[in-house]
Amino acid sequence: MTIKLKWYWILLIGVTLGIILSIVTYKIFENNTVEEPKIVYVPQPTLQGTLKNFKLAKIEFPSYNFLHYYRDTVYIDSTVFITQPVDSLEILRDWLSKRHYSEVLFDNDTLGKFELDLLVHKNQLQQLDYRYNPVKRVEYNTTQVRPKFELLAGVGLTTNNYANVHLGGFRNNFGLTLDYYRSFHTNDYGIGLTAYYKLNFY
């Protein structure tokens, strides 16, 4: 091979390596941020209040005939009830008693919490208190910065008595290594460039 031809190959390899190095440098140092959507539920001001003076919408009386006259024993759905003497004081105490009820209708991260408190007095609903702690759905994007470059290094042996050394790196599943090969017998050596693409299996 003439000297002129050798310089031609050296120049061609140099230009090729320069182009590859430029691409790799750009891939390594270009902006490497990723926008990821996020959803959060932000607590809002509590809504609460009290309701009173309810209007009676309907009243239903039992239709059992035995309620129209006195009996010592009453049968309702196979259950036996023994009629007791009327205790006016007990009836009055029951009528004047105040019964408080409390209930949570729902309580979760996406709707908030809704509570009810009820007061029953004189056989009527006297008061209803409600408290609602709402939440608001908020969507926004967060910027995640990935590692720009992952180093890769390795050594190996081949069946024809060659040793090899690899040095390079990965970025966004794209990798490039500079490879050095040397023979144990002939002391021949070589330099190569290998491109990689990393396959991810989940």
What features would you highlight for this structure?
single chain; 202 residues; alpha+beta; 4-stranded antiparallel beta sheet
What's the arrangement of strands in the largest beta sheet? 2-7-6-5
The helical percent reads: 10-25%
Q: Tell me, what's the shape?
A: rod-shaped
> How many domains would you count in the coordinates?
2
The overall pLDDT, averaged over residues, is: 77
The N- and C-terminal alpha carbons lie at a distance of 52 Å
Q: Helix tally?
A: 2
SSE string, helices as H and strands as E: HEEEEHEEEEEEEE
Largest sheet: 4 strands, antiparallel
Unreliable residue runs = none
Number of strands: 12
Instruction: State Rg.
Output: 43 Å
Class of secondary structure makeup: alpha+beta
Residues in β-strands, percent: over 45%
Question: Can you describe what's shown?
Answer:
- Helix content is 18%, strand content 51%.
- The protein is α+β, with helices and mostly antiparallel strands and 202 residues long.
- The protein has 2 domains: 3-32 and 146-197, no CATH class; 39-140, no CATH class.
- The strands form 4 sheets. The chain has a 4-stranded antiparallel β-sheet with strand order 2-7-6-5, with no helix packed on it. A 4-stranded antiparallel β-sheet has the order 9-10-11-12. A two-stranded antiparallel sheet has the order 1-8.
- It is rod-shaped.
- It starts with a helix and ends in a 5-residue tail after the last strand.
